[in-house]
Amino acid sequence: MEVVLAKTSGFCFGVKRAVDTVYEQLEKNGSKGGIYTYGPIIHNEEVVKDLEKKGVKVLDSRQELEALDSGSVIIRSHGVSKDIYDIIEKKELDCVDATCPFVKRIHGIVEKESSQGRRIVIIGNDGHPEVEGIKGWSNTPATVIEDMQAAENFDAKSDEKLCIVSQTTFNYKKFQDLVEIFQKKGYDIIVANTICNATEERQKEAVDLAAKADVMIVIGGTHSSNTRKLYELCKSKCEGTYYIQTLADLKLDLPNSVELVGITAGASTPNKIIEEVQNYVRINF
Fold first, then answer.
1. Alpha helix (H) ranges present in the chain?
2. Catalytically active residues, by annotation
3. pLDDT tens across 142-165, in order?
4. What is the mean pLDDT of the chain?
5. DSSP of 22-81
6. pTM exceeding 0.85
């Protein structure tokens, strides 16, 4: 039996940079002055637990941020809205910005285009921290579109100008389909495909591998949007697809007929967990 790991698996550039930033802060300051992340640094419970053990506290709301008197606040990889930076500045806290540069680019586009009067349309998952952060950089009300129905129902004035951006981890094919609906409506649109290249690559690799595999294992945090999408894509190509967070979740009973097991992992999954799963499947089956 062959076990194949998708080439683009585990930490993407933005996530690795964010996690490294927190560990660097711990090395520099320990937990002396108090180290906080605004929301979990990434969507992986194992990483967040490890950081908490080392003294990093997660701030879950504006109220918790406003209650701070000192310390370093690390902006997570997903980014935050502009008003969070304003609060940190007003409170004279140390701000360490670990926003993924690809997300940061979206903030710049949204701020610029909305200040020139364009209505912002974000193609993504409403309520996701990255999308919430993007909304917070728009000077005009931003609309989030998640599916075909919402795109069909969208209505704007004939003279209204739009700017469409995407959540970095959105499904590329779905993004194109939704943009097409807007184009058919004849609006004056600027489209910025802000899906991260690593996301496109990861999704394509996972789909190609799942199409050949008898069993597919997708590893990632339960709150990870990009892992959920990987699972959905793999499931559409391989019925025997498992979604796990760690090796402890893996309950495999493989018949002898299985020839190829494929493994992929979300952008917030540490290599250690991927290796554990890979080694376990290789040794035990």
1. 13-29, 45-53, 62-66, 82-90, 101-115, 129-135, 148-153, 172-184, 197-212, 225-237, 271-284
2. 130
3. 999 999 999 999 999 988 999 999
4. 95
5. HHHHHHHHTTSS-EEEES-SSS-HHHHHHHHHTTEEEE-SHHHHHT--SSEEEEPTT---
6. yes
